[in-house]
Amino acid sequence: MPVGASIAAAGSIAKSAISANAAGQATKAAKQANQANLQFLNGVYDDAKGNLNPTIQGGIKSGNTLSGLLGVGGDPVASQKAWDQYRNSTNYQFQFDQGTQAVKTANAPAFNSGATAKALINYGQGQAGSALAGYESLLAGQQSLGAQSALGLGGIGTNIAQQVIGTNNATAGVKGSSALYTGNALGGGIDALTGLFGNMTGASSYGGSSGSGALPGHTTGAI
Q: How far apart are alpha carbons 130 and 135 in whole angstroms?
């Protein structure tokens, strides 16, 4: 077999091996990049969840408390307890006492009159109603804020899920391309190797001679 053909065949085999190795390295790099991306995205979601979850939970509790106060759900007993705690934590009682004293002072000449009692009742009812309305408004606002936070977290999760899907699809594409390229490279190497052996076998058969043949340049004949 000519030396040039042997070198070419050996080079083709080496090239196939190098190509197969490069494809394997590409697959490995794609896997590592995918894992790093997933880890980063999970970290982003965990951070967002940690930041938003307290507001979400607060919104849920506020909604349950509001439902209990309105008598449409929740726990009315717990809602009443929360309302009492709210009043005790604010200056509600102070304002109420000051207003009551003002009504009494204004009606001092007839302190024990029915007009004074009616004025005190009206004041007390108005003060309580105003405070309760303000408290319910605060609960509704907290509930709305919790719902918005939940929607925001859901949007972040959806966006991350789409990125994860895209990353996985890209990695799968790299793996498929690498597998196909590796198969083609190995196939080319096998073809070159097969051709090399075939040529070597053919050359050996062509150059061989049988034991009964005459040597070149001589003739046989009777002595």
A: 9
| 35 vs 63: CA distance, rounded Å | 40
**Which positions of the chain have pLDDT values less than 50?**
1, 3, 205-223
In a domain, 128, yes or no: yes
Q: 200 lies in a domain?
A: no
What lies within 8 Å, CB to CB, of 17 at 6+ separation is 185, 189
Looking at residue 221, what is its pLDDT? 43
Whole-number pLDDT of residue 52 = 94
Taking a C-beta distance cutoff of 8 angstroms, is the pair 126, 96 a contact?
no
Residue 16 inside a domain? The answer is yes
Query: C-alpha distances in angstroms, 156 versus 41, 54, 59, 177, 217?
Result: 10, 16, 19, 32, 91
Q: Which pLDDT score, from 0 to 100, does residue 78 have?
A: 94
Per the structure, the complete domain to which residue 132 belongs is given by 12-187
Query: Residue 220 region, left (φ>0) first, then alpha (ψ -120 to 50), else beta?
Result: beta
Report yes or no on 206 lying in a domain.
Answer: no
This prediction has a pTM of: 0.59
- Structurally, how many domains does the chain consist of? 1
Q: What sign does the dihedral 102-107-108-111 (CA atoms) show?
A: negative
